[in-house]
Amino acid sequence: MTATDRRIERRWEQVHAWGPYGLLGISVVLAAVSTGQMDGPAEWELDAGLVVAAVLLQVWWNGTRSRRPAHGRTPSRAGTAYYVVRWAIAFTLTWSSGFFAFYAATGYMDADELIPGMWRRLGLFASAITVAGAQSGGLPPESVTQWLAFGGLLAANSGLQTVVAHLTEQEERRSRERAATIGELERTNAALQQALDENVALHTQLVVQAREAGVADERRRLAAEIHDTIAQGLTGIIAQLQVVANAPDLAVARTYLERASALARHSLGEARRSVHNLAPVALADDGLPEALKKTVAEWGERTGIRAEFTVTGTSEQLHDEVSATLLRIAQEALSNASRHARAARVGVTLSFMGDEVTLDVRDDGRGFDPLAVPARTGAGGFGLDGMRARAERMAGSLAVESEPGHGTALSARVPLVRHAS
Prior knowledge:
11 helices; single chain; rod-shaped; five-stranded mixed β-sheet
């Protein structure tokens, strides 16, 4: 309830508490001034007694109202009894003097709070009889004309009060509906506020989880990059230095030392670019087909294994992330072929197929059982798991076909995402 509603409610309380006193006082003053309408001292004594009774009745009712919760606006048996007794006093006084109709009009003020249900209409009709009698010249009517006037005035008063009562009931019903709607809105707002609080907590939790996932993903990326660059580069350097140790003359040794030095510089550059999340060195100036061609050729020259590279379909400029992913997968597959497969021949094919690009790496090595691949250990590389993770990070997939003694075929498929122009 707003401050304005509370202020209006207090004023109605004052009207209901003090209004009957005021109307009774007006009636007494007017009746006393018009002494010609009084029959004698006995009549005055009766009227005086009734006035005192009316005052005591009102004092009792106001005291009862003050002790009742919800400011006494709910109909009750006590309120109905008070209304009936007050009407009887007002009717008797109006019979004596028509000016007491002012007091009788109090029945119009509070019938809605004193009388329940349809009995309220009967109470209003009874008050209308008293007021109409006074308006028509007093009770009881003494002539046909006065009776006709009484009937017309009664119809007018009761009809007017019926309309007012009907409008009052409608307003009360709308007030109850508004109160129910406000209550429902308050409950809905409370539920929404609770949902918002839960969403804030969930958002905070998601932010923390996203940060943790980002840290974990960055760690995996760096681990894979280090494995694909530094680890492979060091392996190549070690292989070159082993050849140097067994070189028959200085010229041969110098050749392999130069290769080891070049490989060391290349690995250092790759390591720096990995830390800064840049594309591989091979992709700095070339597209993926050219980078793969050079990588395969250099690997074949370094390992002495026959290696061939083929491109099928219409070559397109791929997004940097897609190119880097496929190049790293190719590098890891070639590294596995040189370290584990003991292959004599390796073929690498890059295929552009509409909305997909595929990298196939095949060797004629000793092969293996894909279902029997041991779990990665702290001393091992990323191998198949690392290549599969890279492909899946690009919404792609990695398929491996191998059998002991029959070589290995690896196929990485990723969506063809073109380079942003």
